[in-house]
Fold this protein.
Amino acid sequence: MREDTGQYRRCRHCRRILPDQDGAGRPREFCGGACRQREWVFRQRAAELNLSDEELIVVRAELDALHDELYVLACAIEDAERDGSLAKDSSPQQVRDALRWIVDAAKPVIDPARLSPLRP
């Protein structure tokens, strides 16, 4: 966690939380060599296509899949809230079941393997 902002440092490419860094040296920007390489490729492709830092190319099928996964996650949260599974008087088993449902719905959304390189 960064002491100046209270936020976790994240990989510049996949956004995973980076471990705390002990000792001297430059702060890590990537979780590994693969992310560093992918980010380099992304920057090269963006330069070829004259894209600014604010622009991004996304394959429509991947964007649609992400929207679907976010909808499933939102429904899981809504279901847990509506069922009262997360209420103060819920049993521990009800809370575990609700959280398991929410976590299962969130896994596809946070899967870094789904990231693909920019395409022309």
Q: What stands out?
A: Residues 116-120 have pLDDT under 50 and may be disordered. The chain has two domains: 1-56, 58-120. DSSP finds three helices and no strands in the chain. Residues 60-83 form the longest helix (24 residues).
